[in-house]
């Protein structure tokens, strides 16, 4: 690189490079402030979906249906993701992966219809606001389709998937541990219980102080927004080679034409700033997740994965400055290709051609989703680099899913919310364990011949949502269930008859047939834990009654299932 200001990027572009320092980056834009909105949009969309579901139920007079409520929430989450990224396909698949273990194919069109409408309106508003000439992808690219990537690079994409998988495991473990510490510590738990704004302000103050640009933020490119981070990390040029013989100045003001200057420091070098960024953001993201405010969590993970890919790409370009030989042809390495996953083209006016193996692999591994690969295809508008992206995402997911629960499941576990642990693929011996070993035998039944006075005592002394209805007190043959709310309403409607001294039974108020619901599915004491778990997971059940020769002998809920699985995975110490 000469002193005249004209940079020669050996092994990157043939001939002199006019992009540094005078030419604008092809991805730089004055409109570079795109905040992370995926979290708040999904939150708002889910709340709107839940409200619309309640409006529908009250309008048509239909009873509440848990399955339809879940379908509405999945569609709402799909709209939130699809709107932010203008990616309806990955939005639907991401919401299904995160929110549903099983999904009816018949319900796909609802999610796709809602997500497509949201993405279309979002991109249409950009045209109306004169931000775009027409409806296009958010990160429009023009990739080469003849040789999108070289065969030897597949190995490095797999290595990138392994690195993202290992780092995801470490990140999820540390995040879950720190969240548990915050929840159990007397000071932080008191702040979260009584003064959530104070805790949020303190956490934001700590993070803002660390990222202050004249301070430590100088080594983390903290002056860049979310979109500018992606724009710079997806740059075609090798920063290590460009700064090998000359030190670019750090501008007093942010230069949108040379965003990569924010990542360079003469003492730290490019490798130092990228490594420092990864180390600091590792724990800063963990701290930020404890703030009790809906915020975008996916985009920071996306950027973190892109930084991992960029660091690997810079290291490879430094080791192989002339490129990798494949078939007798020397092909240059583009570090942005490992943040974006592609083979560089010889055209400096194009954005970095490639998709997002680093970004997609890390964000997909943390959330236990594969649809992040499809998201990469949709936001760029091309699919020619599907193989390296999918390989990196699959490898990272295989490592993480075998070691750690996802970010969402880990948060549910720490907060002790209802959670059904997964057992597929885990060698915990779930087949020999039967329902008779872990069911709850303390079940309160109501017989048809039970006097109403006794029914009132049972209802007032218990708070279960539904009661098993048996044929008689003697036989205990299960014939259906009775909802507590409906039973209370029916009992309140007949106080006059009790005053007259008439001995009435439960059968009398069940004569209309509106209170009793038939039991279409029940368990046997010989049913295995594995089969029971599959039923609960497939049908999204909350409780099933257990019968032996027709007699009600107990019930199984999420609590009993979770205890049984926990006993297998972490057996109690023998005395």
Keywords:
elongated, disordered N terminus, alpha+beta, four-stranded mixed beta sheet, 575 residues, two-stranded antiparallel ribbon
Give a brief outline of the structure.
This protein has 575 residues and is of the alpha+beta class. The protein is 51% helix and 7% strand. It has a 4-stranded mixed β-sheet. It has a two-stranded antiparallel sheet with strand order 1-2.
Please outline the helices and strands.
Elements (H helix, E strand, L loop, with lengths): L6 E2 L7 E2 L20 H23 L5 H20 L2 H12 L8 H21 L24 H32 L1 H9 L1 H15 L15 H8 L5 H4 L26 H20 L9 H22 L4 E3 L2 E3 L4 H5 L16 H11 L3 H10 L5 H16 L5 H8 L20 H4 L7 E2 L4 H10 L4 E5 L7 E6 H9 L2 H5 L6 H4 L6 E2 L11 H11 L3 E6 L2 E7 H12 L6
Parallel strand pairs: 5-6
Antiparallel strand pairs: 1-2, 3-4, 6-7, 7-8, 9-10
Helix pairs in contact: 1-2, 2-3, 2-4, 3-4, 3-14, 5-10, 5-13, 5-15, 5-16, 6-7, 8-11, 10-11, 11-13, 13-14, 13-15, 14-15, 22-23
Explain what you see.
The protein is of the alpha+beta class. The protein has helices at residues 38-60, 66-85, 88-99, 108-128, 153-184, 186-194, 196-210, 226-233, 239-242, 269-288, 298-319, 336-340, 357-367, 371-380, 386-401, 407-414, 435-438, 452-461, 484-492, 495-499, 506-509, 529-539, 558-569; strands spanning 7-8, 16-17, 324-326, 329-331, 446-447, 466-470, 478-483, 516-517, 543-548, 551-557. The protein has a four-stranded mixed beta sheet with strand order 5-6-7-8. Strands 1-2 form a two-stranded antiparallel ribbon. It has a two-stranded antiparallel ribbon with strand order 3-4. β9 and β10 (551-557) form a beta hairpin. It comes from Castor canadensis. This is Chloride channel protein ClC-Kb isoform X5.
């Amino acid at each position: 690189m000469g002193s005249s200001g004209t940079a020669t990027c050996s092994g990157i572009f043939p001939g002199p490079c006019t992009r540094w320092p005078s030419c604008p980056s092809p991805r730089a834009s004055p409109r570079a402030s795109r905040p992370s909105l995926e979290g708040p949009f999904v939150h708002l969309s889910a709340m709107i979906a839940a409200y619309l579901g309640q409006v529908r139920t009250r309008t048509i007079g239909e009873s509440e249906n848990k399955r339809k409520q879940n379908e509405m929430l999945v569609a709402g989450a799909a709209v939130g993701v699809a709107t932010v990224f203008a990616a309806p396909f990955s939005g639907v698949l991401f919401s299904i992966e995160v929110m549903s273990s099983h999904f009816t194919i018949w319900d796909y069109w609802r999610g796709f219809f809602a997500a497509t409408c949201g993405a279309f309106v979002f991109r249409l508003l950009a045209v109306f606001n004169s931000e775009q000439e027409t409806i296009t992808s958010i990160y429009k690219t023009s990739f080469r389709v003849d040789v999108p990537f070289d065969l030897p690079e597949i190995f490095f994409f797999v290595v990138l998937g392994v690195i993202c998988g290992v780092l995801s495991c470490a990140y999820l473990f540390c995040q879950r541990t720190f969240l548990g510490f915050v929840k159990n510590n007397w000071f932080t738990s008191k702040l979260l219980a009584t003064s959530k704004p104070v805790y949020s302000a303190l956490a934001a103050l700590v993070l803002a102080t660390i990222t202050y640009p004249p301070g430590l933020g100088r080594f983390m490119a903290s002056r860049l927004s979310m979109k500018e981070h992606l724009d710079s990390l997806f740059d075609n040029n090798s920063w290590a080679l460009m700064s090998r013989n000359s030190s670019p100045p750090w501008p007093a003001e942010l230069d949108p034409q040379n965003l990569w200057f924010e990542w360079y420091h003469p003492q730290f070098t490019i490798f130092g700033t990228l490594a420092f960024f990864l180390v600091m953001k590792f724990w800063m993201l963990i701290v930020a997740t404890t703030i009790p405010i809906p915020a975008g969590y996916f985009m920071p993970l996306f950027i973190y994965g892109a930084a991992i890919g960029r660091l690997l790409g810079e290291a490879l370009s430094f080791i192989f400055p002339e490129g990798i030989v494949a078939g007798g042809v020397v092909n240059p390495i583009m570090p942005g290709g490992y943040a974006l996953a592609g083979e560089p083209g010889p055209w400096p006016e194009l954005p970095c051609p490639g998709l997002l193996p680093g970004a997609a692999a890390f964000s997909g591994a943390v959330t236990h989703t594969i649809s992040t690969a499809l998201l990469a295809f949709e936001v760029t508008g091309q699919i020619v680099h599907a193989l390296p992206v999918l390989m990196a995402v699959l490898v990272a997911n295989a490592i993480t899913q075998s070691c750690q629960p996802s970010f969402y499941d880990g948060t549910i576990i720490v907060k002790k919310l209802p959670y059904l642990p997964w057992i597929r693929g885990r060698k915990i011996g779930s087949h020999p364990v039967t329902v008779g070993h872990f069911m709850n035998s303390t079940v309160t039944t109501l017989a048809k011949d039970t006097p109403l006075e006794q029914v009132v005592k049972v209802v007032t002394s218990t708070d279960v949502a539904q009661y098993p209805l048996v044929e008689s007190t003697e036989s205990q043959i299960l014939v259906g269930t009775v909802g507590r709310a409906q039973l209370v309403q029916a009992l309140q409607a007949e106080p006059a008859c009790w005053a007259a001294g008439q001995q009435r039974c439960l059968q009398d108020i069940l004569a209309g047939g509106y209170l009793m619901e038939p039991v279409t599915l029940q368990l046997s004491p010989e049913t295995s834990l594995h089969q029971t778990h599959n039923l609960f997971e497939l049908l999204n059940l909350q409780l099933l009654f257990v019968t032996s020769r027709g007699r009600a002998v107990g019930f199984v809920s999420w609590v009993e299932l979770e205890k049984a699985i926990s006993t297998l995975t972490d057996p109690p110490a023998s005395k």
